[in-house]
Every structure is written in structure tokens, then in C-alpha cells.
Amino acid sequence: MTDNKRQSVGGKAQGLGPASTATGPGMATAMVPLEAALSGAIGARVRITTAPPVSSTLEGTLFTACPITNLVAINTSNQSAPAGSANQTQPSDYHIIPISRIQSFQLLSLAPSSNSTDGPFTNASPALHALDIRALKAREASAVAKLQENEARRGKGVTREAQDLFDAFSRTMPARWDGTSIVVADAVVIAKPYRVDDCRPLVAGDSAALTRVRKVLEMERKKIELRNASAAMGNTNHFARHAGAAQGGAGAKDRVAVPNHLDTSSAPAPRKGG
Fold it and tell me: Which residue among 40, 51, 186, 199 has its CA within the 20 to 30 Å range from the CA of 3?
């Protein structure tokens, strides 16, 4: 993003000559305001002198000028590469300077990319390529169609059991919703409450499709009943285990060890003669 910004505003420096300067602590020149000159010189070679009490002169490539924080960054490395070049991985030495501390600013040379007439992002790094609008529209249409298909497969105002039956049919045969009824292969419709007797053919005399759908429906209803019974049994066992553990803990607290005073098997026998 920073490189794009540097390239997009780099062309502004064309209106500034190498002799364009701004003097005074944070003041505008008679030619170009300091903020505008800095923004237009991004990527160019500049010389910046800061105001007292700590006055210094820095010369290098202006990396960025932020109008929000009022800070500029300058790369003073002698091997600094211009924006968009392939040598931007070389070591750099950046200095952050508040705009209010700039006493003078001089543009030494324009950014190399500022002379390009092909657009501000010609030398952007990484390179920017044109978007394939047709491919993007096709991808969008495919995603929308998939969402619409998923929405059409979800029944409106039906029970979880009805949705499970629909999903089971749709895995092996074409299925769609017609209100709260399930239409299988456009040949058989299954009305609520989705029992075997609720199946009827859409085409009179199509007994083969009706028989097949009824067999599948009967099998899927048995699977659902087994799953429900297994889940109910698991919940019952879980409750019983927790209840038994709770009762066992309470019984353990009530039990107290009482010595048996009637047991004299271990008592020593009395000796005769005292």
C-alpha cells in the first residue's frame, strides 16, 4: 500500500523543479506550500534541514509524508533505490521527522518514475496487473447460483425429520420442495407427514417410480427412528450414571463405622489360679 501511495503521488513532483525550496520553521514558501511540496516529492531525492534547538540536515529519498500524523520519513542510505525498482531490498536508514520541525526543504532530483506517462502505478512493486472482469463476473455468478441452490434445498416451515428425508432423497435422486411437499425425480410427490401412504405419482400409472420412492422412504424413516432411539437411550444412560453417582456419594457420607463389641474372638482367655 505504501509503494502504491508513493507511486500514485510521485507524479505530483513534476510541477516542482529541483530548485523548489521551503524556508522557515514549518512555513510555506512563496512558490509551493510545504505540505504540498512534501507530498509531491515522495520518491524524490531531497535535502531537509530541521529547526533548532537540535538542527540537522538530512539528504536522501523521501519515503512518505503522512498528512494525518504530520510526519515524514526519509531514507538517507547512499544505496537507497528509487521507488518501484528491483533493488528495494538493500539496507536502508530511515529517519522520521515531524513536519513542524522542518526549517527548509530542497528538492534535489525528481523520482525516476515521475517521468512515466503510462499511469501512476506503472512501476509499482509488486507489479499490478489488469483484472479479468469476465472471470470475476463468472465467479460471482457461480457463487450466487450455489447460494440459491442451497437455499432452494432448505425447506420452509418443515420439521427436522422432513429436512432429513429430503436430504436423503437428494443424495441419490433429484429432489425439490413444492411448499411443504417433497417432489422426487418430478415423478412422485410426498406430502406431510411424509409416510409411505403419503406418496402419490405425478403421472398416472407410473407404479415403478412410486414403488421405488416408497422403498427408499421406508428405509430412511427406519434409519431416522433408529437414530432417535439411540440418541434417547444415550441420554437416559447418561442421566442414570449421573444420578447413581450422586446417590452413591450421598450414601457414603451417611455410613459410619461402628465397632462390633460382641466379637470376642480376639480377646485373651482368663488364666486359672489368678
Answer: 51
3 state SS of 115: helix
Angle at 64 between CA 74 and CA 83, to 5 degrees: 85
Per-residue model confidence (pLDDT) at position 24: 42
Residue 12: name the closest of 111, 100, 96 by CA.
111
Q: How far apart are CA 158 and CA 166, in angstroms?
A: 11
What DSSP designation does 51 have?
Answer: P
Instruction: Read off the pLDDT band of 107 (50, 70, 90).
Output: confident
Residue 57 pLDDT > 90, yes or no? yes
For residue 249, what are the contacts with CB-CB under 8 A and spacing of at least 6? none
- C-alpha cell recorded at residue 226: 433408529
Q: According to CATH, what is the number of the domain 34-77+92-109?
A: 2.30.30.520
DSSP run (H or E) holding 139 = helix 133-152
7 Rama class: left (phi>0) / alpha (psi -120 to 50) / beta: alpha
pLDDT at 139 over 60: yes
**Rounded Cα distance, 102 and 214, in Å:** 86
Which three three-digit cell numbers place residue 122? Answer: 506503472
Instruction: Pinpoint the residues of the chain covered by CATH 2.30.30.520.
Output: 34-77+92-109
